[in-house]
Amino acid sequence: MLPSSFPGISTAAGPAPEVSDGELPGEMAIVVSNHRDANAIASYYEVPVHYFPPVSLNKVRMEGCEMELEQGNIDLIVLARYMQILSPRFVESYPQGIINVHHSFLPAFTGARPYHVAFQRGVKLIGATSHYSTQNLDDGPIIEQDVTRVSHRDQVAELVQKRRDLKRLALSRAVRGHLHHRILFYGDKTVAFD
């Protein structure tokens, strides 16, 4: 699957509006997506959107197109709903500059429907993790994590909604920490300052 949402944030001056009304010290420069639903939010903030239909290009060609679109002005790439392994060339082009977010069920509950499996197993906690992307899938230095309890009354829909909320929190905190230069690398780990 191709990336569904691939916003780039530039900390340099540019034509795009400030992210989230000035909450973050940067500007949303571009959104690359294989879902048309990214158009609404991007157009609200007057951010250019480039749509790549699923399977329209092979991965190497698509990543090349994405890199051409950003033209060296992107300091941070935020992966949202991204379901593809990045190529080594792409990761090397943005060292410590790609943040991904996913549910914390990995590797226990992998696959397309992890919340259904987690529900069947009776999980008591769910969570989300934001990390820097590396060439090793979901193995990059962790920036931010969050968890919440699951009740026996929660159904799959409630687990999915709680996951969405947690992913938004974990991702926004990770991006904020990165843009405010509050993340230090220490070996394969990060130290995140409040």
What does this structure look like?
By secondary structure, the protein is an alpha+beta fold. The chain has two domains: 94 residues, Rossmann fold (3-Layer(aba) Sandwich); 96 residues, Formyl transferase, N-terminal domain (Rossmann fold). The protein contains five helices and nine strands, in the order E-E-H-E-H-E-H-E-H-E-E-H-E-E. Strands 3-2-1-4-5-6-7 form a seven-stranded mixed sheet, with helices on both faces. A two-stranded antiparallel ribbon has the order 8-9. Strand 2, helix 1 and strand 3 form a beta-alpha-beta unit. The radius of gyration is 17 Å and the shape is globular.
Question: What would you say about this model in short?
Answer:
This protein has helices spanning 38-44, 59-70, 88-93, 114-121, 156-179, and strands at residues 6-10, 27-33, 49-51, 76-79, 98-103, 125-132, 142-149, 183-186, 189-192. It is an alpha+beta fold.
